[in-house]
UniProtKB/TrEMBL annotation:
Its cofactor is pantetheine 4'-phosphate. It comes from Gordonia namibiensis NBRC 108229. It holds the Pfam family PP-binding. It comes from the Bacteria. This is Putative non-ribosomal peptide synthetase. Gene3D superfamilies: 3.30.300.30, ACP-like, alpha/beta hydrolase, N-terminal domain of ligase-like. SUPFAM superfamilies: Acetyl-CoA synthetase-like (SSF56801), ACP-like (SSF47336), alpha/beta-Hydrolases (SSF53474). GO terms for molecular function: phosphopantetheine binding. PROSITE patterns: AMP_BINDING, CARRIER, PHOSPHOPANTETHEINE. Keywords: Phosphopantetheine, Phosphoprotein.
Length: 859
C-alpha cells in the first residue's frame, strides 16, 4: 500500500499479539504519524491537516495538559466534528489521561451531571495558546491505563461512565483493518458524531490505520451538499447511522452514485434489508455495505459485510461475525451455553472490553467478571443467537421481550415487519409488560401514502401472527431522537387514551364488535364496547366498509352521521337499533354530518370527491376551541340519490344544508379538494344574497390543468380536448393513491378493452349515487365525477377573502386563485401531500392552519 514496511507491520499486527509494537492508542498514533508524515490526516470542508502537523499539535497540547491539569484527573473535551476536537482527543490520550467526551448538543443539566460524576477538568480551547511550555515531557501509558470515560446515552436507565483502556482504540483500529480493510490508501468519511461510542470507533478505525479522515458535521450542516463533497473528496468509505442513511439517501437516486466509494457502514441501531437496497440504489451501486454493532462496554461487537452480489434477507440484518478478540456466548438463565440457533442472553469475553463502571463497584461486579486468563466477561443483557456460520443476530434487550396471550414477542421483530412496509421511513415498538401489549410508532413517507393504523395492521397481518400486531399504532412524521441519534423513548407521543376493554352486550354489539375487529385489524380481546372507532385507527375508507357490512348483514339503515355522533360500539348499537325500530331517515339528511358538538357559530367543511364526511374527522378533532363542526359530503356517496354533476349544483345543495342549521350569517365555510371549489361558490352565492362570510378555508383544492387553461384564457381546442380525453383512459388509476403501497399496476389491456372500460366508467359516473356499488368502485366513480366537475366549473363572481392551505406537493400557480375572487387571497403551506394532509400525523398541522384562518375574524 505505502511501501513502508514498519507501517505495514504495524497495521498487520494481529489482535491480542504480545509482539505488538504499539499496544496503546498513544503509541499507535505516534507510530502512524511518523510513517504517514505529510499525508493528509484530517479534512473538513474548510480545513486540512497532515499527520506531521497534527502530531506537533498533539504533542504540544499533551504537554500543556500535563502542566495545567491535576495528576490522574480525567480531562473533559467538548467534541465537535472538526480538526481541533480530534487533536484534543489524541492529546488527552498521549498525556496518559482519561478522556471525557462532552457533546455540545447535550442539555445543560446532563452536561453538568457528567462533569460532576467524572470529576473531570474541562479543557479550555486556549490552553496551548496561553500556556508557555517549559520542558519536553513524554508519557508512555500502559495498555490497561484508562483512556476513555464514556458516558452511556441513558436510554436504558441512569447514564453510566464506562471505563475503556488504552488498548481499546487499538483493538478498534485492528477491527477496521480486518473487516473493512481500512488503510493508508483510504479516505474515510466519518458522519457519526465523534462524541459517542460509534464516532470514537470510527475515528480509531480510520486515523489509527493511517487513513485520511473526512469530517462532515451532519447535525450542523445537514446533508445538503454531502454527496457532492464525498465525490469531490474521493471518499472511499463512509460511516453513519441507519437513521441518517435513510434521511440522507431518501433524497438521492441512481444518478447520485459516488464512484470512489468502495464501502458504506452503519452502526448504532439495527440495519434492515431496505437500508442495503437504498444504498445500492443510490451512492453505492458497486461497493460493500457493512453493518457493525457495538456497545459502550464492549466496543466493537460484530461485523456483517454485504458485497454487491450478496442477497439480503428481509428484516433486521444480523450483526455478523464477532469482532477481533471477542468471544461471544449465548447462555440460558442458568448461564449454560445454548446450542446453535437457540435464543439466550449474549455474553462477551475478551481482554478488550471495559474494565467496569466509573465509581460504581456494585454495578461493575454485577455485569463484569474477571477470568483466570486475564480476560473479562460482560453480561450484555441483550438477547441473541448464533447461526451455524458463527454469525450473531441481536434480538433486542432481554427486558424488552413481552408475553402477549402467553406468546413471547420480541419488539425488534415487529419493528422489522413495520420497516418492510413501503410507506415506512422509521419505526419503534415499545412493550408494556403490566398490560401485556405493544405500541408501535411509525414514521411514514407521505409521498407514498399516509396509512391509517387500520391499514398498517392489515399489512402486518400478512407477515405476523395476530398476537404480534401492536394494539396501538401511532403514525408520526418522524421518530424523536436524542443528541446521539438514538430513539428518545420519553419523547414518543402517547397513543390516544383508551378505556379498559369491556365485552359487547347483546347481538347487535357482538356483530359490530366482529365487524370492527375484521376491518380495523384488531384482536377481539384488544378492544371493547366503549372504544372509539377513529381512535382505534379507523379512517374514511374503513368507515365506509364497516357501514356497508352493517347494512348487508344486519339489514339496517345506517349512515356516516350516526357513526360520527355515536363513535363507540355501545353508542352505535343504540343508534342503529333505534333506527331499525323507527325505520326513519336520519334527521340531518344524507349530506350534512355533525362531526363535533359545541357552542357558538358552527363551522361548515365540505368533503372531497367520493369521500365520506368522516374523512375530515382527524382534522376536526385537532381543531382548537369548541365550536360545532358540520361536514357536507356528496349526495349519493352514501345513500341512494342522484349525485350533483356541477360545482354550482353542489353549492346550492350545500347552502340548503347550511341554512338548515344556521339560517343567517356570518358563516364560516371551508372545503377540502373538490369541497374547496364548492365552498368558494357557496360563499359567492351567500354574499350575493346579502349574507356575510368569514375567510373561506380552501384545503388543497388542486386546479385541474383544463380549468387552469380556461381561467388563464388558453383553453385547448377541440383536437386537444380529444387527446386529453384519450389520455385520461389510463390516467385515472395513476391519479388514485395506492392504498397499500404494495399493489402492482395491472396491465391497462388493449385499446379496445380500455375504451370499453372507459364507456362503462362513464355510464357509472352518469348514474353516480343511483346504482349500488362496492366501496372501492364507488370511490373511483365519485373521484372521476369530481374531476369533471372541477374541469367544467365556471366560478361565480366573489369579492370576499380566501385562504388557501397548500400541501407541499401542490404546484398550482397561486395567481390562478385571483380568478375565483377579487378579494384578498392568502396562502398557508404545510407538510404532507394532498391525501396525507387530512391524516395523522399531518392532520394536526392542517388543523392549526385552519385555526389560523378561523382566528382571522371578520373579513
Amino acid at each position: 500500500m505505502t511501501g513502508d514496511k514498519h507501517l505495514d507491520a504495524l497495521l498487520s499486527t494481529p489482535a491480542g499479539s504480545s509482539e505488538s509494537a504499539a499496544p496503546t492508542v498513544a503509541a499507535r498514533w505516534r507510530a502512524i504519524a511518523r510513517s504517514r508524515d505529510d499525508a493528509a490526516a484530517i479534512r473538513t470542508p474548510e480545513q486540512s491537516i497532515t499527520f506531521a502537523q497534527a502530531a506537533t499539535r498533539v504533542d504540544d497540547l499533551a504537554r500543556a495538559i500535563l502542566d495545567t491539569t491535576p495528576t490522574d484527573s480525567p480531562v473533559a473535551v467538548e467534541i465537535e466534528s472538526d480538526i481541533d476536537s480530534v487533536i484534543s482527543m489524541l492529546a488527552v490520550w498521549c498525556a496518559g489521561r482519561s478522556l471525557v467526551m462532552v457533546d455540545p448538543f447535550l442539555p445543560d443539566d446532563r452536561r453538568a451531571n457528567i462533569l460532576e460524576l467524572s470529576g473531570a477538568h474541562l479543557l479550555a480551547p486556549a490552553t496551548v495558546v496561553d500556556h508557555e511550555l517549559h520542558e519536553t515531557r513524554v508519557v508512555e501509558p500502559a495498555p490497561d491505563d484508562p483512556a476513555v470515560l464514556l458516558f452511556t446515552s441513558g436510554s436504558t436507565g441512569t447514564p453510566k461512565g464506562v471505563v475503556l483502556a488504552q488498548r481499546t482504540p487499538v483493538n478498534h483500529a485492528r477491527d477496521g483493518r480486518r473487516f473493512m480493510e481500512l488503510g493508508p490508501d483510504d479516505r474515510a468519511a466519518v458522519l457519526l458524531p465523534l462524541s459517542f461510542g460509534g464516532g470514537l470507533d470510527a475515528l480509531a478505525m480510520s486515523v489509527l490505520n493511517g487513513a485520511t479522515m473526512l469530517l462532515w458535521d451532519v447535525r450542523r450542516r445537514t446533508t445538503t451538499g454531502l454527496r457532492d463533497w464525498l465525490s469531490a473528496e474521493g471518499a472511499t468509505t463512509a460511516h453513519c447511522t441507519p437513521s441518517l442513511l435513510r434521511s440522507w439517501l431518501g433524497e438521492l437516486d441512481a444518478e447520485d452514485a459516488v464512484d470512489s466509494l468502495r464501502l458504506l457502514s452503519t452502526c448504532g441501531e439495527p440495519a434492515h434489508r431496505t437500508d442495503v437496497e437504498l444504498a445500492r440504489n443510490t451512492i453505492l451501486p458497486r461497493g460493500v455495505f457493512c453493518c457493525w454493532a457495538g456497545a459502550s462496554e464492549v466496543g466493537n461487537l460484530a461485523f456483517n459485510l454485504f458485497p454487491p452480489e450478496r442477497e439480503v434477507e428481509d428484516g433486521a440484518i444480523p450483526v455478523g461475525i464477532p469482532a477481533s478478540d471477542k468471544f461471544v456466548r449465548i447462555v440460558d438463565e442458568d448461564d449454560r451455553d445454548l446450542p446453535t440457533g437457540s435464543t439466550g442472553e449474549v455474553i462477551v469475553e475478551s481482554a478488550n472490553i471495559a474494565s467496569g463502571y466509573h465509581a460504581n463497584p456494585e454495578l461493575t461486579a454485577a455485569r463484569f467478571t474477571s477470568l483466570p486468563d486475564g480476560r473479562r466477561r460482560y453480561r450484555t443483557g441483550d438477547l441473541g443467537r448464533l447461526d451455524e456460520n458463527g454469525a450473531l443476530a441481536l434480538l433486542g434487550r432481554g427486558d424488552d421481550a413481552i408475553k402477549v396471550r402467553g406468546y413471547l414477542v420480541e419488539p425488534l421483530e415487529v419493528e422489522s415487519a413495520l420497516r418492510s412496509l413501503p410507506w415506512t421511513t422509521d419505526a419503534v415498538v415499545t412493550a408494556d409488560r403490566e398490560e401485556g401489549r405493544l405500541t408501535a410508532h411509525v414514521a411514514v413517507d407521505p409521498q407514498k401514502w399516509s396509512p391509517s393504523p387500520a391499514e398498517i395492521r392489515h399489512e402486518l397481518g400478512k407477515t405476523l401472527t395476530p398476537w404480534m400486531i401492536p394494539r396501538d399504532i401511532v403514525v408520526v412524521s418522524e421518530i424523536p431522537r436524542n443528541e446521539r441519534g438514538k430513539v428518545d423513548r420519553g419523547a414518543l407521543p402517547p397513543p390516544p387514551p383508551r378505556p379498559t376493554p369491556e365485552r359487547p352486550r347483546g347481538l347487535t354489539e357482538m356483530a359490530l364488535h366482529r365487524f370492527w375487529g375484521e376491518i380495523l385489524g384488531l384482536e377481539p380481546q384488544s378492544f371493547g364496547r366503549h372504544d372509539d372507532f377513529v381512535k382505534l385507527g379507523g379512517d374514511s375508507l374503513a368507515a365506509a366498509k364497516m357501514l356497508s357490512e352493517v347494512q348487508h348483514h344486519l339489514q339496517l339503515e345506517v349512515n356516516t352521521a350516526m357513526l360520527a355522533e355515536a363513535p363507540t360500539i355501545a353508542q352505535f348499537a343504540q343508534r342503529i337499533e333505534a333506527a331499525a325500530k323507527e325505520r326513519s331517515k336520519n334527521a340531518t339528511g344524507a349530506t350534512l354530518i355533525p362531526l363535533r358538538k359545541g357552542h357558538g357559530d358552527p363551522i361548515f367543511l365540505i368533503a372531497g370527491a367520493g369521500s365520506l364526511a368522516t374523512s375530515l374527522t382527524p382534522v376536526v378533532r385537532a381543531l382548537s376551541g369548541d365550536r360545532p363542526v358540520y361536514a357536507i359530503q356528496s349526495r349519493g356517496v352514501e345513500k341512494h340519490g342522484r349525485a350533483d354533476h356541477s360545482v354550482r349544483a353542489a353549492a346550492r345543495r350545500a347552502i340548503a344544508d347550511i341554512r338548515s342549521v344556521q339560517p343567517h350569517g356570518p358563516y364560516q365555510i371551508g372545503g377540502y379538494s373538490l369541497g374547496g371549489f364548492i365552498a368558494v361558490e357557496v360563499a359567492a352565492r351567500l354574499t350575493r344574497a346579502g349574507e356575510t362570510c368569514h375567510p373561506v378555508a380552501v384545503l388543497d383544492s388542486v386546479i385541474d390543468p383544463v380549468l387552469a387553461q380556461r381561467l388563464s384564457g388558453n383553453a385547448p381546442n377541440v383536437a386537444q380536448r380529444v387527446r386529453d380525453s384519450l389520455r385520461s383512459l389510463t390516467k385515472t388509476e395513476e391519479t388514485l393513491p395506492d392504498r397499500t403501497g404494495t399493489e402492482e399496476k395491472k396491465p391497462a389491456g388493449s385499446p379496445v378493452q380500455r375504451v370499453v372500460q372507459e364507456i362503462a366508467l362513464n355510464a357509472l359516473v352518469l348514474t353516480a349515487g343511483l346504482v349500488p356499488l362496492s366501496t372501492p368502485v364507488q370511490w373511483v366513480v365519485f373521484f372521476r365525477l369530481g374531476t369533471r366537475m372541477i374541469r367544467r366549473h365556471r366560478p361565480s363572481p366573489y369579492s370576499g377573502p380566501i385562504t388557501v392551505v397548500k400541501a407541499r406537493t401542490n404546484t398550482d400557480d397561486p395567481a390562478l386563485w385571483s380568478h375565483f375572487t377579487s378579494g384578498r387571497v392568502e396562502f398557508l403551506d404545510i407538510d404532507g401531500d394532498h391525501i396525507s394532509m387530512i391524516r395523522a400525523p399531518h392532520a394536526a398541522e392542517t388543523a392549526r392552519a385552519l385555526d389560523e384562518i378561523i382566528g382571522d375574524g371578520a373579513p
